[in-house]
Structure prediction request, 1198 residues.
Amino acid sequence: MEMQKLYLLVPLAPLLGAAIAGLFCRIIPRWVAHTATIAGVAIAFVASLVIFRDVAAGNTFNGPVYQWLTSGDYKFEVGFLIDQLTVTMMMVVTFVSLMVHIYTIGYMHDDPGYNRFFSYIALFTFSMLMLVMSNNFMQLFFGWEAVGLVSYLLIGFWYTRPTAIFANMKAFLVNRVGDFGFVLGIGLVLAHFGSLDYKTVFAQAPSLAEATITLYGGAGWGTVSLMSATCILLFIGAMGKSAQVPLHVWLPDSMEGPTPISALIHAATMVTAGIFMVARMSPLFELSDTALSFVIIIGAITALFMGLLGIIQNDIKRVVAYSTLSQLGYMTVALGASAYSVAIFHLMTHAFFKALLFLGAGSVIIGMHHDQDIRNMGGLRKYMPVTWLTSLIGSLALIGTPFFSGFYSKDSIIEAVSVSHIAGSGFAYFSVMAGVFITAFYSFRMYFLVFHGEERFGLAHHGHEAASHGKVEDAHADAHDGDHDDEEVAPDHHHGLAPGQKPHETPWVVTLPLVLLAIPSVVIGYFAIEPMLFGDFFKGAILINHEAHPGMEELAQEFHGAFAMAAHAFGSPVFWLAIGGVVVSWFFYLKRPDIPAAIKAACGPIYTVLENKYYFDKFNELVVAGGARLLGKGLWRGGDAGVIDGLFVGGAVRVVNGVAVIARLFQSGHIYHYAFTMIFGVCALLSFWLLRA
Amino acid sequence: MSGMPLLSLAIWVPIGFGALVLATGSDRNAPLARMLALLGAVAGLVVTIPLYTNFDLATPAMQFVELKNWIPRFNINYHLGVDGISMLFVILNSFITIIVVLAGWQVIGSKVAQYNAAFLIMSGLMNGIFASLDGILFYVFFEASLIPLYLIIGVWGGPRRVYAAFKFFLFTLMGSLLFMISLIYLYVESGSFSILDWHRMPLGMVQQMWIFLALLVAFAVKVPMWPVHTWLPDAHVEAPTGGSIVLAAIALKLGAYGFLRFSLPIAPDASQQLSGFIVALSLIAVVYIGFVALVQADMKKLVAYSSIAHMGFVTLGFFMFGGIGKEGSLGVGSTLGMEGAIVQMISHGFVAAAMFFCIGVMYDRVHSRLIADYGGVVNTMPKFAAFFMLFAMANAGLPATSGFVGEFMVILAAVKFNFWVAVAAATTMILGAAYTLWMYKRVVFGAVGNHHVAELTDINAREFFILVLLALGALGMGLYPQPFTEVMHSSVNELLRHVAVSKIL
Prediction:
């Protein structure tokens, strides 16, 4: 009983904080808002720790909180499933959220929407916790949409900026496309399993492994596997939330939001909801190789092609955003290879080092007075030592340096893919290997441009126009002005440093979270890999069909401890690819800056394609959005106004009118007309009767 | 409590207060008229509360029944009673009446007594519709309720009010005539005007078909279903805010309620035969109207179209018979779909009312309904923007709001019925969000668009109170829909049992 109260406390404490900060945001002073929300999230974090210890001791929980709805044979409940997977997510979410809350005190210091912002991020924490703690699909969907709502509110936090309110609507609608598939997947689950409760559904799954559904006609092509259809539809939901190609388009634009939420929502937690969901559904996905192939291919495409886009970005946040997309691709690949625990492991390490990188980027942005263009930076190492060091740690973790947390998780993904036999794993292996080089290259390109080299800030009329190698890009940017997301910030936020002004290190509320995030970014992999991947930790939470997908067992046989794994890595091709990426970026951006410019000039068409992000945005805007508007206009003008009102309603009016016009002829008002008509009528009737007789 | 004629009170208390309000006469007594109207509306809601608290969940039979002779020569009775479905609408209607009286408080300056009286009388008549168990009584209330609404649009409406009022009246009248003919036919066949007798009366397939189609015309216009929906956007655009609220929250429900009370139980075989046709029309309403709503420049038109799309979900939920799975055998409708549709009706009562009220709040200040005349409202009306966001999200069917519950239930039921029907229905997830949020973005977000927006004042205490009431409804139902659905279980099951049993002898 005691523990159950604690479970309730975890989501409700942040909710209460959000309510205090949100409902009274115009009355209360700032310290009340941040104290209330930070206290709420801190309570949630501590409670999560206690629950973690309890779960580690073997006490899992699955039960309802209240009955939401009953209808016919169906029961919909709000309830919690507390197991190893849940508690891992709870710790990651509450810890990163707590760090971001503290950081926000510094980052949003000058913002008039201070209280509102705290309310939103606490509300987000509540929603995300409801999502991960759910024991059924209905509540999962509730959390899923609620985090989407808060993401929408936060991307559009600066609601006077046209780019921000475009980006938040785009994010919501693209996610809704994913939800469209998700809700149909949930529908298939309810229709065929008769319940939305995880436990009931998973228990029945093996017996329905061979079930089919008829989509059209009789047999043959119209019949598909129930499990494949369900899993693919559910995964479409994950593609929206976890930004997988082609539903990734909203994530780069989401950088319009304040940096703390980019770290919390668009890197560490919300975007990983899709990964979590698939891992949670492992008893279903394990039964469909088709779905797993679909997953691994989508993940591989995302990992490779989104990484490539990271290379050409000049906005510090966008570099990190594309890196996030690419890393989400890695996690998805792991899911496709049936290495669910590896995906969750990478999710966890990524949450720490990517939140660190984002918050570091935010710290740089504060130091640079809201200039986000890395071409205007350089040499910041001297001025912002804490930010520099922690960002370096984050970058090293991201590229998979041995002994860092990112190494353990990323290397495990690559290993898992290499032993997977699922269709598409060959391509996925190529993608994740190439991705290692690309990740190292763009990460250190950013790192060198920001923290090393000559100081390019504080120049008179700095900005893109003056930057020596910005000319080509600007020509493109101008040509695609309708693109809405070419330029990163609206003019009123684009201050930058005045001539002669130097960047400065940020206050302790900003740097403390950086340090606290840097610690797990280094060590968590070393300590967690053995229990999470090869121990029994996820045994009850994640189910793998070892006969069909023996990858994890092979990995376990080759694993001889965390230290040995890192020590062996120095000779592996993965390591040299990463080193290669770092060295090339060092050579290009610190030694010979003329080389990238030359390459850019030589590869014009390729560069144009990358600059336009493979034309996804163009297509969506012209074909999808434009087509919908055109169709709407056509149906409205043609269907409603033309056919229904014009032809039928108007036609009826015209018929009545026509009859009336003729009838009116007889109502002339002249006595002699009426007399004539009467005589004529009498004659006609008389003749008729007489002739008939 | 059981001795009180609660349903009669629910009908005649508002009408009586309406007469009193009317008696205050000219606008010199406007404050008195308003106070009396509010008193009447509150009293009207108070007498309906025992309907819920004393409701017996176990029985599908009619409750709080009153039966008196009215015109014995034709066996016409003053026969009232509610089941778990109609009881909810009586309460919803009485609740909405308070909202409309408050909504017109400072806004309506001329003919105040007449305005408020019209709403009170209409409220009573609408309660009469939901409580009637006699065909003629139902018909009288059904038609009489048209008059106040017609007057509200025609007298207090916008510039094209006369056109809109006529269009509204003629469209609905067309259906009413066929409805009357059906009633007379049923009387001739059964010798009774009791609706419950008709539920039990055997009927041949041909007769069922004709009755179903005649009723379909009557009810489809009211719902409104595609393609007889074009009167609704015009009526909404010209109606005053209060008129739009009642129109959306209650009047649209009458058609859907007609399906439940008449079409389905009286002509079950025809309902099954033609269910595919109704499902098709419903899906057209969801998809076609969704696209049309996207391109509207007038906020009221946009919300009116979105109402049509939402009502498409209602008719879809009613007519998903058969399907696969546990409930198996063909002909058994889906409880989930049916209850989802009813939930959607109630939810739409809160959400559409709130959307029209929000538009009214802006209209009162700027005197425009065009999206292009706004932009950046959040800068000058932050409190309003927060409420409007909540209702926009409810309109888009976000979980934790009432808009989600019905939509979710109907979509889930649709997957079971037919996967492709569900695919078409689920497009509302995208379309609903697209038209609602695009409007919200252009109206509320952004920099201050023009001097009208710059001069806006945020909502006052009265508007705040109304919005809080509606928000409690929308959120409460979204977070805990069980109290709404548990009262309807036995009635819905009874209805589905009626539909499942063939009437053909």
The beta strands of chain B are 63-71, 76-82. Chain B has 24 helices and two strands.
